[in-house]
Amino acid sequence: MSDLDSIDFFTDLSVVDDPNPYFDHLRSKCPVLREPHHGTMMVTGYAEAMEVFSKHREIFSSCVAVTGPIPPLPFTPQGDDISGQISQHLPGMPWSAHLVTLDGPAHAALRNILNAILTHTRLKKNEEYVEKLADRLIDGFISHGKCEFVADYAHALSTLVIADLLGVPEEDRDEILELLGQPPTQIGGDPQHKIAPDPLAYLDARFTSYMQERRGNPRGDMMSDLANARFKDGSLPDLDVPVRLAKFLFGAGQDTSARLMASCFRLLGEFPHIQRHLRKEQQRIPDFIEETLRMESPAKLISRLARSTTTIGGVAVPAGTIVTLGLGAANRDPRHFEAPGELSLDRPNLRDHIAFSRGAHACPGAPLARAETRITLQRFLDRMSDIRVSETKHGAPGARRFQYEPTYLLRGLSALHIEFDVA
User: Fold this and answer.
1) Sheet holding 60-61, edge to edge
2) Is residue 186 pLDDT above 70, yes or no?
3) How many domains does the chain have?
4) SS3 421
């Protein structure tokens, strides 16, 4: 047995900064493999992950999407179809009040509301705000020739953008962010953010007041549209429905974008030839973003629960098995992506990655994350030259030291110190 065989991926901090050797090891043994510590079926192959997505509606439930095998199921699966048991126990399971864990018609009804609100037109109109905000944040540190990108820029921009889109009052934003706490999959702590059916319930009073006000007095923001959105049959949802959607969007909307931006700037500093290329051909920035998503997927894992006995990649999967899809692992599967550890803007299957998942549960905020990151790269490249990773803080090339957030679900730098010359 190798040392990698003994690792508990869900609790071991040793795999937080670089999970790829662990995923590569699992894939080399079998791209669909039951791990010994929590009994979840780890899927590390691209074709096998796509198979799960293709079977999602009929075979797999999203009821364990956020936390995976921790905590374990609140029931003992029985038989070859556990759909009834899922329905019976779902109300008490973690995050069950939110869109991400819903299935079938319940999920589709809420996703239709979101799709009608998070439109291309709305996001396009928002780009001018993002550009002005980007320049305002850059103005705060550009004369210093350096910044800590995660705190000084990425989190600030993504938080302010989603808050502005939703219509969260400026005076409330800092306090709400403080209340959100650590990610639900944080290793070693913050249990109240892990196991409750609605871990964001403490925000109910605040967001309910926003929604009540906007039902009577729409302001043209996303919360106004959510408050007054109707189901396909024309009925108006109870107020708690848009309240939950707004809370979840605010919590999740600032996170993915910040992680993606930080990964882009780490790679920008590590690969000067790519930086030079993007300065000359800014139309290739979207390609750089897609390749960054493939190499540094903001979500390492998503999980599903097998409703009925099935197979994945020819491997038997009994009903009641938690299946954990390694998005980052699948995006580095050498059977699908040639030289997966290399950064290449000319990769022919550049957009095959599954960093934002696929199918009905694909990340609704993906277009926003891409737009924020594209505008950020454009503004930094226009205003700065020779953007570098700080050797003082992170070490010399070939001996870099980066620290990542201690969560098994998400991949995000805790800090990224960069230096630059003013253009």
Assistant:
1) 32-34, 41-43, 322-326, 301-306, 60-61
2) no
3) 1
4) strand
